[in-house]
Q: What sequence folds into this?
């Protein structure tokens, strides 16, 4: 099982993922995305869903038209783990492509 | 442009959609869904996304693993309109199928 990262470990990991924010009170890491329209936003979500399902690690997320908010935490560990940092990096690549 | 339904009109419409709740403070209508797993939940979301895009009327929604929360309102009208009631009925059919 993945183990929780400490606050300083999460913050060190986010140096390489500067668009993600760490909310230590949840705890989770989160990022907001904005697209041209719903089609672009949901297309992105579909690619993230496929990547998440392949890793058996899933986001908490919401969508309103062209906006997507993603929050990552490892529910079984009750915190942020390497799984979240790794999925965030994959999501960044999908968002940039 | 679709015009806002009054509270009593929304409540009358929801007689036929008993799993939807009316939050007059937002205002919006909302329903929660629970599936077997993420794959089932996101499969449902994809079908809803296609129906929403075809109607050019989109939900505000969130997903966490097997749970989906959908909120419908007509942003351009600032309230609940026939478009929302109609999309809610379509979503109910997709959830039941």
A:
């Amino acid at each position: 099982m993945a183990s929780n990262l400490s606050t300083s470990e999460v913050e060190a990991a986010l140096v390489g993922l500067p668009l993600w924010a760490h909310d230590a009170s949840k705890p989770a890491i989160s990022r907001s995305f904005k697209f041209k329209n719903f089609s672009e936003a949901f297309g992105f979500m579909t690619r993230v869903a496929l990547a998440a399902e392949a890793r058996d690690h899933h986001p908490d997320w919401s969508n309103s038209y062209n906006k997507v908010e993603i929050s990552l935490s490892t529910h079984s560990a009750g915190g942020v783990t390497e799984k979240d940092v790794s999925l965030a990096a994959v999501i960044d690549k999908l968002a940039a492509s």
